[in-house]
Amino acid sequence: MKHRDLLRRLNHRIKNRDLIDIMKALAEAEHLRVDKVVPDGGGTQTVWYSLV
Q1: Cα(6)–Cα(20) distance, integer angstroms
Q2: Per-domain residue ranges for the chain?
Q3: Cβ-based neighbours of 32, under 8 Å, separated by 6 or more
Q4: From the CB of residue 19, how many other CB atoms can be counted at a distance below 10 Å?
Q5: What gap in Å lies between CA 46 and CA 43, rounded to an integer?
Q6: pLDDT digits (tens, 9 = 90+) for 7-16
Q7: CA distance 26 to 36
Q8: What is the model's pTM?
């Protein structure tokens, strides 16, 4: 799931920086995989989360 989609799904109940901290903690505990994808034509990278 994209970071943006997750934030919208939560209806912005959690602040973006808090969500990033939560996801970092889950990734460090190896419960979550974080992939950062840069489009071929350049631009802003997209952060994808997936459960392990």
Answers
A1: 11
A2: 3-51
A3: 23, 26, 49, 50, 51, 52
A4: 16
A5: 9
A6: 999 999 999 9
A7: 16
A8: 0.84
